[in-house]
Amino acid sequence: MEKTAIEHPVLVVMGVSGSGKSTVAGFLAGSLGWELAEGDDFHPAANVAKMAAGHPLTDDDRWPWLDTIAGWIKDRDKLGEPGVVTCSALKKRYRDVLRGPNVVFVYLHGRRNQIADRLQARHGHFMPPELLQSQFEALEEPTPDENVLIVDIEGTPAEEAHRIIDGLGLKATAHGENTI
Ligand SMILES: Nc1ncnc2c1ncn2[C@@H]1O[C@H](COP(=O)(O)OP(=O)(O)OP(=O)(O)O)[C@@H](O)[C@H]1O
Ligand SMILES: O=C(O)[C@H](O)[C@@H](O)[C@H](O)[C@H](O)CO
């Protein structure tokens, strides 16, 4: 996509479980000095329990969660502040809930095997690696008309964040921990 001309963008870092949303969003928000929200924190407890028990969420499980994230995005807009939020946003109709004048999607694209390896190596997270198959089944990749930057999940998280900042024509302003 073109470099963003939006004055206060909210970057929605999206992709299947294990694509690196939380990790990369941390570097992005840290480097840009922008507010960060973790989409997983907006899930009702029942959703987390369901996933932890090995069951994929349904559309009905996801609508209230998406509404909450959309609310966070709108609040940033009202404040005239940029931000970064993680959200799997797997289907086009989920992204329709999140879309807005200030929203730019950043899709972390990777091969299934590569992501499966990362999930196998990840510990202490409620999401079981076995749900990756269902995540790919639900996935409708964003198309170029969706105001999206597509990023391959190659290199270190800091390198990925650097490519995103560059690709969107943004400027890293902050220095310190978790910056690029
Ligand atoms: N660029 C990278 N290179 C190597 N490992 C990475 C990279 N990005 C993320 N990881 C690792 O891959 C695993 C998955 O990343 P992360 O938890 O950020 O994904 P996620 O998309 O937020 O997953 P979920 O949706 O399940 O919360 C983590 O263990 C993380 O440390
Ligand atoms: O839409 C979904 O199925 C969920 O949002 C999942 O993607 C989880 O939230 C996440 O992957 C686990 O951290």
UniProtKB/TrEMBL annotation:
Pathway: Carbohydrate acid metabolism. InterPro entries: P-loop_NTPase, Therm_gnt_kin. The keyword Glycoprotein does not apply. It comes from the Bacteria. Gene3D superfamilies: P-loop containing nucleotide triphosphate hydrolases (3.40.50.300). Keywords: ATP-binding, Kinase, Nucleotide-binding, Transferase. It catalyses: D-gluconate + ATP = 6-phospho-D-gluconate + ADP + H(+). One of its GO terms (molecular function) is gluconokinase activity. The keyword Transmembrane does not apply. Its EC number is 2.7.1.12. Belongs to the gluconokinase GntK/GntV family. NCBIfam families: therm_gnt_kin. This is Gluconokinase. It comes from Arthrobacter horti.
